[in-house]
């Protein structure tokens, strides 16, 4: 799942390669997505049913329900689609935000430890949290939340950390 073109928030050098790239698991959209879709469908049905006799209060209520449901569902989708996680050959990136943007970036040389956490439901549905700890800090510096196939992401990150450690010790 590579970028079609390099986004403006993503700064990659010529000698850097994308190792892994993803967004959170779709479960991250939570219950607001189906609630929004359900509200929009209910409003659509009410509008169609009440609109047969002309525009009345029930028709207007149905239109408002349709619009509100569509806005809720679309907002959840936008939050999900505008969150990205990237591991390159030398750095980690986490980007979130629609209007304002928050990009966290770390060089792999700073990474001290990583941990993978999956709940029972996360194992069943195929998502988990990948936490990155950097040198000089006991607190997590970066968390990739609800990553799909977290074991694969963890493996790719571990491989890159090993490569960076080997290249760094050879110098």
Brief account:
The chain is α+β, with helices and mostly antiparallel strands and 171 residues long. It has helices spanning 32-50, 57-81, 120-125, 150-170, and strands spanning 18-22, 84-88, 91-96, 102-107, 111-117, 127-134, 142-148.
What does it look like?
By secondary structure, the chain is an alpha+beta fold. The chain is 42% helix and 26% strand. It is built from four helices and seven strands; from the N terminus they run E-H-H-E-E-E-E-H-E-E-H. The chain has helices at residues 32-50, 57-81, 120-125, 150-170, and strands spanning 18-22, 84-88, 91-96, 102-107, 111-117, 127-134, 142-148. The protein has a four-stranded antiparallel sheet with strand order 1-2-3-4, with helices on one face. Strands 5-6-7 form a three-stranded antiparallel sheet. A hairpin with a 7-residue loop joins strand 6 and strand 7. Helix 1 runs antiparallel to helix 2. The two termini are 33 Å apart. The mean pLDDT is 88.
Distance between the termini: 33 Å
Helix content: 40-55%
Overall structural class, as computed from helix and strand content, comes to: alpha+beta
| Proportion of strand residues | 25-35%
Oligomeric nature of the chains: single chain
Count, helices: 4
Unreliable stretches (pLDDT < 50, length at least 5) are: none
Which strands sit side by side, in order, in the main sheet?
Answer: 1-2-3-4
The overall strand count is 7
Q: Which H/E pattern describes the elements?
A: EHHEEEEHEEH
The radius of gyration over CA amounts to 22 Å
Q: What characterizes the major β-sheet?
A: 4 strands, antiparallel
Shape: elongated
Average pLDDT level:
88
């Amino acid at each position: 799942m590579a970028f079609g073109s390099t986004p403006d928030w993503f700064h990659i050098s010529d000698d850097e390669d994308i190792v892994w790239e993803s967004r959170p698991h779709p479960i991250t959209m939570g219950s607001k997505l189906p609630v929004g879709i359900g509200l929009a469908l209910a409003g659509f049905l009410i509008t169609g049913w009440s609109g047969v006799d002309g525009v009345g209060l029930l028709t207007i209520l149905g239109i408002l329900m349709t619009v509100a449901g569509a806005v809720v569902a679309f907002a959840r989708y936008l939050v999900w689609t505008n969150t990205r996680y990237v591991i390159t050959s030398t750095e980690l990136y986490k980007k979130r935000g629609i209007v304002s943007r928050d990009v966290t970036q770390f060089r792999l040389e700073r990474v001290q430890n990583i941990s993978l956490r999956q709940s029972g439901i996360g194992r069943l549905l195929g998502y988990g949290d990948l936490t990155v700890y950097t040198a000089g800090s006991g607190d997590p510096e970066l968390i990739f939340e609800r990553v799909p196939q977290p074991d694969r992401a963890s493996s790719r990150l571990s491989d890159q950390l090993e490569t960076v450690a080997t290249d760094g010790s050879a110098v």
